[in-house]
Request: fold
Amino acid sequence: MAGPFGATSTTDEVLEGVDLAGKRILVTGVSAGLGAETARALAAHGAQVVGAARSLEKARAATAAAREEATNGGGLELVELDLASLASVRACADALLADGRPFDVIIANAGVMATPKGVTADGFETQFGTNHLGHFVLVNRIASLLNGRLVNLSSAGHRFSDADLADPNFEHTPYDEFVAYGRSKTANVLFAVEFDRRHKARGVRAAAVHPGVIQTELGRYMTPQVIERLMAGISADQRPGAAGFSWKTIPQGAATSVWAATVAPAEAVGAHFCEDCHVAEVVDDPNVRGGVRAYALDPAHAQALWAKSEELVGERF
Reply:
């Protein structure tokens, strides 16, 4: 399948004929779902995949297919990473830096969704701390090893809320699991925008992607009522002739990640938000499903988030 690709394209279709031999790619969250499929598809096309996961035992089981299908020099190794603990994030980064081997791509795939109100080991709101701040520290600490692309997994859920830099931990705002998720997913896009600005002069580009709506472990915290609310929020699209909502399979969901990471021209996806294997249009109409909100791509907002993130984690990058 040569393309063009779309919502129903799978990882294998996107990567058909693509030789990733000699490429080294870091994928976070390989213990289930999209991360495991992303690792499998990349290794099957010759990439050396470094899979990061909180539970190495669970990750070994989930990535059995990646090891079995690895060809043309491809393979998989695992590293321990708990994004909800900056001590774990820093230990992982230190180990990768000590190893010294570069990465052609980093796919920041891991995350949590619609969790009950809680905090990470460092006291950050769970979703913002895990989805954004954990990756922010990891990626920036190993940025010197990256010589290709960063792909941040965001979500259409970024439309639920802009990032709130005045109250990131809901200390003064009533907690809502989808508002919190939206804040963290907007932060994933803004991080890509600012990372791209800082590194594109040396040939490193960054993009954010929405994989689609897939039934994976990501939704393990959601009750039937919460799922119904989510479906109502993402299904609305009042454009004439708009296609109805449909679930994606896991290979379809991981397709945009591998497309943005290895297939799409770097200059086409850099500092952009991608969905269904294409660069998304800016859409601010709340009655339209699809596209990216303008606030998620705002360069000044991205710089402000970067500064706030540095303040929160106590590191400058």
User: Anything to note?
Assistant: The mean pLDDT is 93. The chain has one domain: 11-313. The beta strands are 24-28, 48-53, 75-80, 103-108, 146-153, 205-210, 273-275, 278-279. The longest strand covers residues 146-153.
